[in-house]
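ugh ok so i messed up the first submission bc i forgot one of the chains. this is the corrected input, ALL of the components this time, i swear. 277 residues overall. if the numbers dont match what u have on ur side tell me asap before i send this to the collaborators (the ones from the other lab, u know who)
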Amino acid sequence: MDLIATAHGALLVVTVCQDRIDAASAIQFKERMREVTQTPSDRVLLDLSQVQFLDSSGLGAVVGVMKLLGRDRQLELVGLTPTVAKVFRLTRMDTVFTIHPTLPDGLRKAS
Amino acid sequence: MACAKPADMGMPIGPERDGVHLVITSDPLAVRAGLANLLASPLLGALNDAARGTAEIVLAEVLNNIVEHAYADISGDIQITLCNRAGGIVVDIHDQGHPFPQERLPQGTLPETCPTNGLPEGGFGWFLIRSLVQNLTYRRDKLGNHLSFILPTEADSETVSSFRPT
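and heres the new structure output, hopefully the right one now
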């Protein structure tokens, strides 16, 4: 599971460089997220723009990451592709996460 | 791979573009490869992006569920047959693993989401399946589990609003 984490002040941007978070990769995703989020930050922005597919295991792993970050660190999502967005919408998880359509200006090149 | 194998499935399959038959082993990576195969078939490849996305979600959930539960402590094959029919794609999935508890499909209600504590990390699979397919049926016999349903092929026919658990 290829993740790239880049710190921007109080914001940690984590880009998933893989096209799916599925039953075969969900546990690995969660473990890698646990590692890369050791870098202190107030917020973690998970860039899913390269992820074309996420199943219920992947969704569970994203929720798991939110929980392991604790209440003091927000997990926000950015760049949901259509099928990924559909899974979040159907399960109402789009109401649990703050979801941004694109990375904030100034971060696009950096990540 | 894409091939017509009608006899033992009890369902006639016409030319290759109207039917797909695939057998995979009960392993998450085999499911991933199988999904790629199915999505690349002429039958699913002809769908629009939204319907293809729906097909991938549903098939992934059903197949992973079989790997994780029916074949939890054993291994075996999963047979997948897709047939093009008016109104949708008829999907039949057969495995020889354990039956569902009480030989009944899970209700598939949406897990509780309480933002203060205890966000669900699982239990979404059957909710997604039931939200996205029609005519879902399950039969257990001496040959194993038989699941069938219709995948809608219309643009974005999420049936979530009409699904109410009984």
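quick check: Chain A has a mean pLDDT of 93. that seems consistent at least. Strands of chain A lie at 3-8, 11-16, 20-21, 43-47, 53-54, 74-78, 98-100.
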